[in-house]
TrEMBL record:
Domain Prephenate/arogenate dehydrogenase: 7-293
InterPro entries: 6-PGluconate_DH-like_C_sf, NAD(P)-bd_dom_sf, PDH_C, PDH_N, Preph/Arog_dehydrog, Prephen_DH
Coiled-coil segments: none
GO molecular function, one term: prephenate dehydrogenase (NADP+) activity
Catalytic reactions on record: prephenate + NAD(+) = 3-(4-hydroxyphenyl)pyruvate + CO2 + NADH
GO BP annotations, alphabetical order: tyrosine biosynthetic process
The protein's name: prephenate dehydrogenase
Length: 293
């Protein structure tokens, strides 16, 4: 028996993240009616056929009428436009949250458009996902044992935070709170930098391979592991990189310095320094894995 119930859940952007949220909430038996708002008719028809949503919204006013909770799960570059569109249709008790990978830009858009509804807005970010996009990739267990970071602002009401937390907990997630500035700085290092390293490795190999047909023919699982995330959505990652560009640029500069250090070790044939560097990296990864289990 679910402890919370929603008469109407509205998901704006019914792809991997929004679709997985819908499926998990449906599995938990919380929502009577799940309405999807989308950009691609084809994707929305699939969402309906897969049972992720009960209805496809025809217009925002009727979609948001009587909504208890709205999840924004489209690429972060759409947030400003969507906030402007939903603001006039919001009811006083509707709680709004998002799943965007960056938080300061999303909060700025909320401040620009939500007015009296700002108190009902709970910025959020599930640290779970995949390199696949669209509702076909949605899974009802995507959030089980995964972290969700909420970055409430001073205006955010306790009631809105409690409802948002309860919904993510019902999806099986672990909820934490963080300042949005800290969120964007940390995620630039642990999520945004690794993605651009994977994208740029593929581009670098493409440009420098002389199109040798053997280049990728004999790659091992190391290459597969390292580059998995280069299969991720270009639109989503363009938006994330632009939204968090200052923090990301800092990370790129620091990473280039680290690469230069390694280059010097090679230039000097400094095996001792190389071994120390790799040992330190391995220890950090092992300590992290041990803490995880
Ligand atoms: N993919 C991940 O691993 C991951 C993880 C955590 C958070 N996020 C964040 O979640 C959000 C969604 O990512 P995703 O992986 O589900 O992407 P996705 O491409 O699978 O889904 C996004 C959906 O939003 C729709 N959309 C785009 N513009 C729209 C608009 N103006 N109005 C309505 N719908 C619109 C698209 O048609 C698509 O169906 C992004 O903000 C992303 O940063 C992604
Ligand atoms: O597992 C993946 O494929 C992901 O990229 C998920 C991932 C990440 O871990 O960096 C990507 C973006 C997010 O905002 C959160 C999670």
């Amino acid at each position: 028996m679910a402890l919370i119930t929603l008469n109407k859940l509205v998901i704006i952007g019914v792809g991997l993240i929004g679709g997985s949220f819908g499926l998990a909430i449906r599995k938990a038996g919380i929502a009577s009616n799940i309405v999807g708002v989308g950009r691609s008719q084809e994707n929305m028809q699939r969402a309906l056929a897969l049972g992720v949503i009960d209805e496809i919204a025809t217009d925002l006013t009727s979609a948001l009428e009587g909504a208890d909770f709205i999840l924004l799960a489209m690429p972060v570059g759409q947030t400003e436009h969507i906030m402007a569109q939903i603001a006039p249709c919001l009811e006083h008790s509707t709680v709004i949250s998002d799943a965007g990978s960056t938080k300061q830009d999303v909060v700025a858009a909320a401040r620009n458009h939500l007015g009296v509804h700002l108190k009902n807005f709970v910025p959020g970010h599930p640290i779970a996902g995949a390199e696949y996009s669209g509702v076909l990739a949605a899974q009802n267990d995507l959030y089980i044992n995964k972290h969700v970071i909420l970055t409430p602002i001073e205006e955010t009401q306790k009631m809105a935070i409690e409802l948002t937390s309860a919904l993510w907990l019902a999806c099986g997630a672990k909820v934490s709170h963080m300042r949005m500035e800290e969120h964007d700085e940390i995620l630039a290092a642990t999520s945004h930098l690794p993605h651009i390293l994977a994208f740029t490795l593929m581009n670098y190999l493409h440009k420098n391979s002389n199109h040798s047909e053997n280049l990728l023919r004999f790659v091992g699982s190391g290459f597969r592991d390292f580059t998995r995330i280069a299969s991720s959505s270009p639109e989503m990652w363009r938006d994330i990189c632009l939204a968090n560009r200052e923090a990301l640029i800092k990370q790129i500069i620091a990473y280039q310095e680290e690469l230069s250090c390694l280059q010097s070790m090679l230039t000097n044939s400094d095996g001792k320094a190389l071994k120390e560097s790799f040992s330190q990296a391995r220890k950090m990864r092992e300590d992290w894995l041990n803490r995880e289990t």
